[in-house]
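#structure-requests
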Amino acid sequence: MATIKKEIPVLEIELKRKTMSRINTRNILEAVIVEDEPESLSLLSSLLVKTGLVEVTGSTRDPFEAVRLILSLTPGIVFLDIKMPGLSGFEILDDLNRVKSVHPHIVFTTAYDDYAIKAFEYAAFDYLLKPIEPSRLKDTLMRCFDNRESGRVQDTSLLLNSYRKLFFRNISGIVLIEPEEIIYVEADGNYSKFFLSDGKTQVVTSLLHKVEEQLPLRDFIRVSRSVIINTSYLKRINTKQSECVLSMNQTEYRIRVSQEKLRSLIEKVREM
């Protein structure tokens, strides 16, 4: 744990003790914010409160106080700025990982997308680019609730390959996608289009073969020059028509399979 405290401009710690009724605690996520910029701290706190899903139980602008604050409040989620004076968000997480008693969901916040790879090497729960979009923030909170309800614990010491997300660039920055959410991916010129289990699509600025390099081989297979499917959603293979049918929530997706890929697909299904 960091023991040398450098001189930093006056950075106050704001603690807001838990005052909400225990009747509603099951539906409220307790959060701590570590952010050295006062405007960013105030804005994020306001956005969180407006969701109605979060109680900000503590915040600090002093990165050297972050670990003590997190340990004292044991929040369910921590919003951690990366670039701060004297101590980075990654160094704070290193300190926190040395303490085995707390495992909050860590969400990095930053104005720079250059840190995305490193953030997920640290097994961050999420990575939000400033200015933070309210809808994107709410998605993060809902996933956190899902983890809590299912009993899964976010261990901040896990490596990237044990909590794997895929990250790609799109026209507005970085998009993060869980492999399990992908039904199939289709080439779209110099881009790739993801069809996701929630019914949404996501276009990224990567060629299909670059996307394929990141997908887990166990679940994904290319069925033609332009399409990669997730076999977890495979319902049937029609060999006569050279197609496969993917299914999600009673919606079916008919995907053309090239003759040269048909045998590989059948063999993969037999191995499942």
